Each structure stands twice: as C-alpha cells, then as structure tokens.
Amino acid sequence: MSNRGEIKWAPFESLFRVQDVLSELETNRKKAIKPVLSEDELQAIEATLLEAFHTKSCVLIHYYYEGLSYQKKGIVENIFQKRIFFQDHSSLYFEQIIHVSII
Fold first, then answer.
1. Residue 51, Cα to own-chain centre: how many angstroms?
2. How many CA atoms lie within 13 Å of 89's alpha carbon, on the beta-carbon side?
3. Which residues have C-beta within 8 Å of that of residue 83, sequence separation ≥ 6?
4. CATH 2.30.30.520 fits 39-102, yes or no
5. What are the backbone angles phi and psi of residue 31, rounded to the nearest 5°?
6. The whole model's pTM is what?
7. Residue-wise pLDDT tens digits, 10-29
8. What's phi and psi for 19, nearest 5 deg?
9. For the chain, which residues make up each domain, given as ranges?
C-alpha cells in the first residue's frame, strides 16, 4: 500500500489560497476614488476641528485611506503642520479627512 497523505490533502491547500485571492478581490472591489471637497467643505472641516481642539470635545472623523473610507472617534490633542494628533497617540493628515462632526 502506498502513502497518499500528501496527494490526498493537496486540493484542500489550494482552497486556502483561493480564499485569500477572493478576499483580496473583494477588498479591491470596495475601493473608491476619494471625493473632491469644495473650499466651503474644507473650511467647515477646519472650523470644526479647531472648535473641537479648543473645547476638548470628542469628534467623529470620516477619512479616506488607500481607496477605502474609515471612521475615527477621539479627542483632538494637537494640530500641527496639516496633521491632527489625538489623545490615543494616533494621527491623521488633514487631506485624508472627508467629514468631521462633534459628538
């Protein structure tokens, strides 16, 4: 009798690779072009961030990164050189931000 152990499991290993490819395709399908903001929208975002910074209010920020849209909730610690720093030591660039609201 021959040992078929490796041959028997070969198709199952390929299924895992297919799953990786399918999840990558799904991620790429969700990618979108960054929305273009008007001057008024940019000024409104800046005003909201400055107000949140001075009042130490919690903000909800919708931002764009590598084709996908994300949300970040936090308190603005500092604003320096077009970069927003949060109390949890994370940061975002101003040009990534799509929308800001004070919670």
1. 23
2. 0
3. 91, 92, 93, 94
4. yes
5. -65, 145
6. 0.72
7. 555 556 677 788 888 888 88
8. -60, -40
9. 39-102
